[in-house]
Input
Amino acid sequence: MKFSCLLLCLLCSCFPLFAQTVVPLYPGTIPGNRSSLDQGKSEQRSPANGLAYFDTTHPSLTVYRPPVPNGKAIVVCPGGGYVRTAFEKEGTRVAQRLLQDSITVFVLQYRLPNPEFQTDPSLAPLQDALQAIRLVRTQAANYQLNPQQIGIMGFSAGGHLAATAATKFLPDHSNRPDFVILIYPVISFSDSLTHKGSRERLLGKNPDAATIREWSADLQVRSNTPPAFLVHAGDDTSVPVGNSLTFYQACLNYDIPAEMHLYPHGGHGFGLHNPTTRDDWTDRLTFWLQSLP
Output
């Protein structure tokens, strides 16, 4: 055990040496941004969670390239209640782990909904997630990727963003993720299941029933939704486990391949490692990714 932990630390410290490139998400005008925006953003650091970003107005992808890519790519959407992006805890640390499996990782710094910054705050994060998939797919050859093995991953509110991207892509599939990975995700915006802070931040204080339905990802699952992998803790009091359950059930209803791992304990926001169990969900994810065609 000690040797494996040491090896993991060494790998994590070495892999960031391979290309970390920050790429603007849009080559020109950013759709939906107000014209008076500057390019600033604020940040915050904490000992446990590391770097988080607030007030992002110009979205970007931070690219992590393994020495020998296996052809798969994952766009990672950190969580933060649509108030911030937990860029280090649910972004860069996740990228370091995925690099061990030779996956090329794109950590998305998406715009956070804010009427001061965007003409339609509810659309901005989704526009960024879909643009990220499109951009990675169009650049697949440059990154040594298979354009049919590009997935999206999200944590908490970032999981809502990832699930929404997996159910609201264009009819031509140009920005459809090939698989979706949801870690303690916000899925439903119904009163009984939602994380109210995320819903209010995205849709405002009093969304009507039609809007709530439109932005509840479990109700948008269809036969062309990509395969899904879900992780959640049963004692999550911030985002009830019912969010993952309802998305999983929706996948079953449409014969979408789905795998779900539920832990009795762990609460919300445990990131890469649930401290209440020896089981490692990232190992389960590795096996699942290897099973995909």
Residues 195 and 227 are 24 Å apart (CA to CA). Strands lie at 20-24, 42-46, 50-54, 60-64, 73-77, 104-109, 150-155, 180-183, 228-233, 258-263. The two ends are 32 Å apart (CA to CA).
